[in-house]
Amino acid sequence: MKFVAFERTQQGSGASRRLRNTGKVPGIVYGGGEPRTIELDHNALFHALKKEAFHSSVLEMELAGNAQKVLLRDFQMHPWKQQVMHIDFQRVDDTTRLRVKVPLHYAGEENSPAVKTDKCLINHVANEVEIECLATQLPEFIAVDLSQLVKSQSLHVSDIVPPSGVRVVKHGTQNPVIVAVTLPKVEEEVAPADAAAAGGAAAPAAGAPAAAGAAPAAAKTKAPAAKDKDDKKKK
User: What is the pTM of this model?
Assistant: First the structure.
């Protein structure tokens, strides 16, 4: 990828603030010579940062009419605005050895026995990995084939097959998981017999208030009969 940068003469927080107000981004390029302060068009840089290749490939920077190979090393964003505050690049050449993180591109999981036969779920635990290589051998990404995954299997960093000349960096004896296969959650269904039993148990409960309510009605019918007997005795 190519981009254009311009030399920046003024430095300091005040100069950087004025630069941002004009739609520019302050930056620096270092390595392979004297560091140089630069400025870039904000909108062009903002859209370039959305591209994966801008983060993980050697870039061609045009500065003062000269083309230089650089690598994006860092950038800072505003805490809440969609604004790039500062950016750093490193000069590289054919002999520069790099240690950077590159994205992992997964493919083939829909054809794996774990998904097709056992209806398992594939979890991408890691989306990038650290590698070491020459600048000329830096890949934009590393492809990981998941078509052979089976139930309850996991892939680790040691299972990654990098391109020629690229070494996957492992820290000590750590071999973290990058992909895990898990069984799907099974929801319990109520059987028809259980549903019928639940309905039968609910019927007496529903009739209970009616039986309790019948007692006052019986009492009311008996009350007039008792009153008639008292009237006959008085006569």
Answer: 0.72
